[in-house]
Write a structure and sequence with these properties.
The chain has five helices and nine strands. By secondary structure, the protein is α/β, with parallel strands linked by helices. The strands form three sheets. Strands 5-4-3-8-9 form a five-stranded mixed sheet. It has a two-stranded antiparallel ribbon with strand order 1-2. The protein has a two-stranded antiparallel sheet with strand order 6-7. The longest helix is centred in the middle third of the chain and has 12 residues. The relative contact order is 0.23.
Length: 165
């Protein structure tokens, strides 16, 4: 049997592709599914780990812009392999206002092709490639950002979301 992470690099979702379906636990001991978002636009952003510097900055930036996303009826959903318990602590510690999905089995990360081989100091390991997907009301991917640099990213996503119409 092949490992589902073996061919992750072959998955390259692009604008126009249907967004993969999901149902995952989220902060607050609830569940969120793509079916419940049908007919709505949303941002799905993947990040490596709660409470690290870049991931914290990104979550704070998206939380700060949440009222502007709400004004255009676009939800913001963060996804990492962390547990719901860790997400709840992360949200409380930084007063975050966005939803966070617990993708502990990496099913959604694999579906979106963001669970990839990484390298640091010559050591190879599997991890999340910081990526964001803007999903339109039609359930199709409207825009993709890969290998995201956090500075200014939430603003760029908001600008793209405003153009969805």
């Amino acid at each position: 049997m092949t490992n589902p992470t073996d061919n992750v690099a072959a998955i390259a979702l692009q604008a126009g592709d249907p967004a993969p379906a999901f149902s995952l636990p989220k902060n607050g001991d609830d569940t969120l599914s793509s079916a419940s978002l049908q007919g709505k636009a949303y941002v799905l952003y993947f990040y490596p780990k709660d409470d690290t510097s870049g991931c914290t900055r990104e979550a704070i930036d998206f939380s700060a812009l949440k009222p502007e996303f709400n004004a255009i009826n676009v939800s913001i959903i963060g996804v990492s392999p962390d547990s719901v318990r860790k997400h709840d602590k992360f949200i409380d510690k930084h007063d975050l206002t966005i939803e966070l999905l617990a993708d502990e089995e990496k099913s959604l990360s694999n579906a979106y092709g963001v669970w990839v081989e990484k390298s640091m100091y010559g050591r190879k390991y599997m991890g999340i490639e910081r990526s964001t997907f803007l999903i339109g009301k039609d359930g199709k991917i409207a825009q993709v950002w890969r290998k995201v640099k956090v500075a200014g990213h939430a603003e760029a996503v908001l600008e793209a979301a405003r153009k969805l119409g």
